[in-house]
Amino acid sequence: MTAQQRELRALYADTDERTEPFDPSVLAGEGSVLVVAEEGGELLACGALKRLDAQEAEIKRMYTVPQARGRGLGRAVLTELVAQGRAAGYRRLVLETGDGQPEAIGLYESAGFTRIPNYGYYVGVENSLCYALELDTE
Predict the structure, then answer these.
(1) Burial class (CB in 10 A: 0-12, 13-18, 19+), 85
(2) Mean pLDDT value across residues 130-138
(3) What is the pLDDT of residue 6?
(4) Ramachandran assignment for 125, one of left (phi > 0), alpha (psi -120 to 50 degrees), beta (any other)
(5) Secondary structure class of 83 (helix, strand, coil)
(6) Is pLDDT of 57 > 60?
(7) CA 24 to chain centre
(8) Which of 3, 54, 113, 136 is the most buried (most CB within 10 A)?
(9) CA distances from 8 to 16, 19, 30, 37, 62 (A)
(10) A Pfam family for this UniProt protein (predicted)?
């Protein structure tokens, strides 16, 4: 998370104001999931599902370290998060990314996520782009 936040600060001058405060302990709660990709004990990529309610979860903290990019790890983490969300019975997954992250936008759109109005913390945040994926849980 520290590396991710450092990178976001380089992309967005107002990162401290636009990034929702995130307490990692929420990932220990019911319905939350943390997925990591590692190699030789080194953490290369991660992502999480944060339960919003019985029907919806938010994808949080998707990140791949720079030296591991281009290997499909982000896609693998996202695919697993979607599978975990479906298995947990969520009907919808939502997420937020920034307009300065074209690779992330491409990943989410190619995985079937579609733009939605900014939600929650991100309402009115100019550089935020919000997405949703409707899950078929049957």
Answers:
(1) buried
(2) 86
(3) 65
(4) beta
(5) helix
(6) yes
(7) 13
(8) 113
(9) 9, 9, 29, 21, 12
(10) Acetyltransf_1
Higher pLDDT pick, 135 / 7: 135
CA pair distance 79, 13, nearest whole angstrom: 31
The partner residues of 116 in beta bridges, in order of sequence, read 130
At position 4, the amino acid (one-letter code) is Q
57 neighbors 49 (Cβ within 8 angstroms):
yes
> What gap in Å lies between CA 73 and CA 50, rounded to an integer?
20
Residue 14 pLDDT grade (very low, low, confident, very high; cuts 50, 70, 90): low
SS (H, E, C) 9-44: HHHCCCHHHHCCCCCHHHHHCCCCEEEEEEECCEEE
CA distance readout (Å), 20 to 14, 17, 95, 97, 114 = 12, 8, 12, 11, 21
Residue 123 DSSP class: T
Tokens 């339960």, residue located: 51
Q: Say whether pLDDT at 34 is over 60.
A: yes
Contact 75/112 with Cβ under 8 angstroms?
no
Contact 59, 65 (CB under 8 A): no
Token pair 């994926």: residue: 133
